[in-house]
Structures
1.
Amino acid sequence: MSILNQRWVELAAVKRELAERDWFPGTSGNLAIKVNTEPLSFLVTSSGKDKRIETDEDFLLVDGDGAALEETKLTPSAETLLHVEIYTRTNAGCSLHVHTVDNNVISELYGDEGGVAFKGQEIIKAFGLWEEDAVWRIPIIENAAHIPALAADFGQYVKEDSGAVLIRNHGITVWGKDAFEAKKILEACEFLFSYHLKVLSFKQAKSLSLRA
Ligand SMILES: CSCCC(=O)C(=O)COP(=O)(O)O
Ligand SMILES: [Zn+2]
């Protein structure tokens, strides 16, 4: 199997798993996987499709500017430039972007602080942080309709070969050395968001019941 086909199969498997989690509401989300480093090329999801459905037009190959490398009627994801930032700034091999209610609520709750930090949670070992007092901080950037501006802002936080950035009231983009690592980071982030929101709501319910 060619590298291109191998990467297609890998990305299709991730897409299937994220779809099973219902992480692609309303056609949102986009995924990418690197095919070649020099010159850069990567597969990215076609824009505007229902990513829960599997077709042979799910991905297209683009270059380091995010432009299609083959004659196609498909349009690369509107957010391809964010994936370009990742592959041009790091050695990451896969990048994933999803919109969930939990990541949107967390981004709104902590957006004014420019980030959200998690500590004291076993799952942050998924980010390669093994120390007892380790802190995992996810930057939060403001959303922008102008994608080149959004990508430029996003790029400032793309420094390591794996990471995550929340886009306020939009979604999360994560990346890792390969599809396995990117998915692990995404799942760990969403676990932390869901846990945190549950704790906040139970604490509020408890304080209300103590006041009653
Ligand atoms: C209805 S979601 C709005 C666009 C977006 O944020 C997204 O993630 C999906 O865009 P794409 O062009 O990748 O389909
Ligand atoms: Zn999006």
2.
Amino acid sequence: MILLDQVGKEIKKKHILKSVSTQINQGESIGIVGPNGAGKSTFIKLIATIIKPDTGRILYKGNPIEKSVKAFRKQVGYIPQDIALFEDFTVKEQLSFWKSAVQLSVSDDYVQNMMASLDLHSVEHQKVKELSGGWKRKVNVCVGMLHNPDILLLDEPTAGVDLAAKDDLIQWLTSLHHAGKTLLIISHDWDVINRLCEKAMVFQQGELIFHDQLDRLNDIEQNLRLDHNHQELVKILKQRMN
Ligand SMILES: Nc1ncnc2c1ncn2[C@@H]1O[C@H](COP(=O)(O)OP(=O)(O)OP(=O)(O)O)[C@@H](O)[C@H]1O
């Protein structure tokens, strides 16, 4: 459904992504892993059309996404790693503001359901600046999902949240995945990846070195987790890709 064909990105003369070619099918749930600075966020920003590739093409259902950016963005929910909320708004005001800003017919039922799944009713009258980091992250996820997109691009959705909030998020994302949504999730938390994803992509120094079923990765999970011996790891993963 989304095809990347030799996509490259250079920032300040540095190759951030090097000729990435891959395909993401509808309804898949893919965990994106790799060491800091490997290019994971850049990869999903390109799909979210936040930034443009310098080389290669990104196609959605066979058409280049830059030809119909507006229509494509309606399908995509991008939840950035950094929290971008109005601190002086209450949670309710925040959601109302963004709901009118996206100018799409979002049903009240959908919003209420999303708030209930993330337990946000309990803080709806609190100002964002009064919330802990975990609550802010849940509101951030809600804002990115207000237009009920089919493709969810989540950059560290559970960073800084406590175990209960993490469970809420995982359960809710699981229900969305079961409803047929496509999920791409960057996370350094293997519990999140294992509970949510069927497939994994591994990035290393701007290269996509593995994209396959998650269970083909689990036996070397410990190596990835410890993030050492990269050369050996890269060799193993590249062999598995062939
Ligand atoms: N706007 C920018 N200006 C300069 N360098 C950038 C910019 N955006 C990304 N980079 C660099 O590109 C590389 C890849 O960044 P990216 O955020 O995609 O990595 P990542 O795998 O998501 O890392 P992390 O796990 O730490 O979030 C890093 O070295 C980063 O410093």
